[in-house]
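Allow me, if you will, to draw on your knowledge of protein folds for a short while. I have a record of one protein: its chain in single-letter code and its fold written as discrete structure tokens. Could you please explain, in whatever detail you think fit, how the structure tokens follow from the sequence? The record follows directly beneath this note:
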Amino acid sequence: MADTVKGVDISVWNGDVDFEMLKRNGISFVMIGMGKRFAENVQKAEAAGMPWGGYFYTDSVSPEEDEEELAKILDRLKGKRPTYPIAIDVEDDGTKAAKGGWNYANVNRNAKFLLEGLEKAGYYPMLYTGFEEIENYIDEAVWRKYDMWWAQWSTRCGYPGDNLGMWQFGGETNYICSPYIEGEIFDQNYAYKDYPTIIKSGGWNNWGTPEPLPDYPDDYPPYQNGTVKDVQEWLNSAYGADLVVDGICGQLTKKALISALQTILNDTYGAGLDVDGIFGRKTRAAIRNLSNGDTGDYVRALQGFLIGRGQDTGGFDGIFGNLTESAVRTFQLVKNLTVDGIAGKNTFEALAKE
């Protein structure tokens, strides 16, 4: 893996971009939106000696629109030789939903068609997306095959796959550095691969005749984050919670999680708590820190709280790994807590009382 390099992504919304200013501020590459100003921004990037790639926001809701979008992309790339990937931007800003296409069947078909179309045309394909999409809308065989440009505005990248190419870590919200570059807001990214070498030597993007990418391996361990239903089933079987397994983290599920936490603290640390499902002063005082590397039901309770609040822990398995740490850090950021990735008294209290 190459040394990490910093880049930005731009679109028509960035207006007249000063590429020399970007270079002065340590920006090493740019991903250019393939709408209006695409050709202009490509010319300016090349004049400044700035390596570039492209991205296309897709809002197709039919096979016919898939074909139209692919034709647009290939037409706009004609005669150009980018040294970064061409990404398909799969997210919903309301457009797909308004057209009735924000569903698994449409999103998965559309992403697969465009990525395969780019590959067949000799362009190095990449998928830009986030947790919601890979969990609910895109097949694992699709999102694991192509390099991932991961969208997660956080202090750490929580992508669960091994095909990470780039991470968009911030835009107008940025927890790593200022969102501003000389007074202008830019979406900012890290690249983890030496794309100019990969693309040129591989013959991609009109630099030669590339070999097809390897297929997704059939024996790849499946990705599965825990769900609220998983948490409820565990609370019922392990702690007799008698919850309706409906996938909704309501007051009864939250109370059952606190009761399970109190039971675990009593059994593990002799806390002597009343198991009443109320996170009070004595429960707070009994909390012990959890951090990366810890395992067991105490960690599973933590993951249950996080999953119930929409965080991705990489599984409901009782293992405090990198994804659980990333979920803790993200929750701490949202709640204005000290961001250290350690689940202590303040973090548990915020989770229990939210």
Observations:
- The domain at 5-202 is CATH 3.20.20.80 (TIM Barrel).
